[in-house]
Amino acid sequence: MRYLVIMLGIVLFMLGWYTAGVYSVVSTGNIEIPYQVSGSEKASPGDWVGENQILVYKDRIEIRVQNASWSRYADSNSMDPLLDKGTNGLELVPERAEDLEIGDIIAYTADWVDGTVIHRIVELGEDEKGWYAITRGDNNGYRDPQRVRFSDIKYVLIGLIY
User: Fold this and answer.
1) What angle do CA 157, 160, 162 make, to 5 degrees?
2) Cα distance between residue 134 and residue 132, in whole Å
3) Thinking of the domain 51-161, which architecture would CATH place it in?
4) In angstroms, rounded to a whole number, what is the distance separating the alpha carbons of residues 117 and 137?
5) Where are the domains of the chain?
6) Distance CA 157, CA 92 (A)
7) Per-residue pLDDT tens digits for 113-136
8) In sequence order, what are the beta bridge partners of 92?
């Protein structure tokens, strides 16, 4: 009987302790959320490679895309952590401006920097000169300073291999 009373006391103590913890969290609004997305939804790249174009075998992988090429990237930090030194990219020369979407990652020539810029399209539009894209590095807090014309675009990124 004494053993039963001790066990009942322990159970009541644990129940009270748990209830006090729950009440404390609920009453103060300190509810812990294990994963919370901050900010708004970001656009993903368009679907340039269909599932039927990716063939996986025991000894190899085939990606069947006409006129694709391979690329590698400089350690510029503007597209970290997506693109960095050692990342292998698959690229394609886009045929029409209409094929490009917000979220696509393009490589283009720019007046404001030497070399090629590889950034994500964040806005599309048209003005007196025609089609344009506004781009931004994923790791940059600002948009690129010039409108990208279709003729400036070298390629669109269609896949990454790490």
Assistant:
1) 155
2) 7
3) Ribbon (2.10)
4) 9
5) 1-36, 51-161
6) 7
7) 888 999 999 999 999 999 999 999
8) 156
